[in-house]
Design brief:
The protein has one domain. The chain contains 4 helices and no strands. The longest helix is centred in the middle third of the chain and has 21 residues. The protein is mainly alpha-helical. It is 71% helix and 0% strand. The chain is elongated. InterPro entries: NPG1-like.
Length: 86
């Protein structure tokens, strides 16, 4: 989460190279399964309408998932700004 926040700050400042460097430090490939599981668990809980159901361990908060999704988007935009896309 800290890297996602720091990367966002650098991106907002217009420092795309620094933002990209921070975003490259996030291992997105290893986080995707956790993010997917967290989103699926959240949807299941909403469908079941069990507000008192406990959150399973090893799942990420929706806030964390949101920050990481934003980091993925900003990484892509940083690459575009630096002309590093194909």
């Amino acid at each position: 989460e800290a890297r996602a926040l720091l990367g966002r700050l650098e991106y907002q400042r217009g420092n795309y190279a620094a933002a990209l460097q921070v975003f490259r430090g996030i291992d997105i490939q290893s986080l995707i399964p956790k993010m997917t599981k967290s989103i699926a668990d959240r949807v299941q809980r909403q469908k079941a309408r069990f507000k008192s159901q406990k959150v399973q361990r090893n799942t990420m908060s929706m806030h964390s998932v949101s920050l990481l999704l934003e980091a993925i988007l900003l990484k892509a935009r940083s690459l575009e700004q630096l002309g590093l896309t194909k």
